[in-house]
DNA sequence: TCTTTGTATTATTTATTATAATACAAACCG
DNA sequence: CGGTTTGTATTATAATAAATAATACAAAGA
């Protein structure tokens, strides 16, 4: 899976990496059990420091999306056993998005249509 | 309107202020044309630096939510004439939220229900 | 004139982010 | 066994962002 960063974004690189991998898992481009690039390999490919990639992997590991093995690298977890509820961070982010939507006059129905597109 | 900040949040104070004011506008706690607290007043009330509040107001002004007057302070804009579409930032944030929701097994229907709650 | 408003300026401190250069333990490979 | 590759730890440094502090200014109302 191609991971590209936007150097002009105000989102830190390590978070952009984390976000893209989570997105890849969610849309199936990364399968459960699939091998991720090595820390050094991805760092070189992206032109960033390997510790920056490591930071992203540490976060993904802590969040339960991946696991790592000293020898075998990082893999997507086979069973992503999360609770079927949004995290606190996501709920707050969603509230911010919806507050903007309301101000812009986007109806609940239209908003759900937009969500549907992201759901595919 | 009460503006409270979470000092343990990883969101900068000036953004927390900005977010709460946008939220207040969206749910009607702040009405169009309504006077906002003064920069210095709000800073003292919240126990933060006045330049931090000023930074939030600058952002809100730039985004088109409020306007300021050297003598009369800051007010919510009467006509919030935004395009009826989400900003790029909001769309990206929504995509991140939905990617997490999908991984957690939350269906599109359940997600729309959650959105409905935020819409009131 | 005095006060209050947002704003500008300058400096300093703190925290975060990113890079750099190594090093280490574990485990696989030939 | 020796060499290589893996994630990880360490230490230092640089760059940037965030927050505070202390003033000062122009505008405008009382």
Task: Walk me through the structure.
The structure is a homodimer of 120-residue chains. The first copy, chain A, is built from five helices and two strands, in the order H-H-H-E-E-H-H. The longest helix of chain A has 16 residues. With 120 residues, the first copy, chain A, is mostly helical. Chain A folds into two domains: 64 residues, Arc Repressor Mutant, subunit A (Orthogonal Bundle); 32 residues. In chain A, helix 1 crosses helix 3 and helix 2 crosses helix 3. Chain A has a two-stranded antiparallel sheet. The two termini of chain A are 19 Å apart. Chain A is globular and about 50 Å long. The structure holds a DNA duplex (30 and 30 nucleotides).
Element order of chain A: H for helix, E for strand? HHHEEHH
Oligomer: homodimer
CATH C-level class of the largest domain in chain A: Mainly Alpha
Spatial order of the strands in the main sheet of chain A? 1-2
CATH architecture of the largest domain in chain A: Orthogonal Bundle
N/C terminus separation of chain A: 19 Å
CATH topology of the largest domain in chain A: Arc Repressor Mutant, subunit A
* Helix percentage of chain A: 40-55%
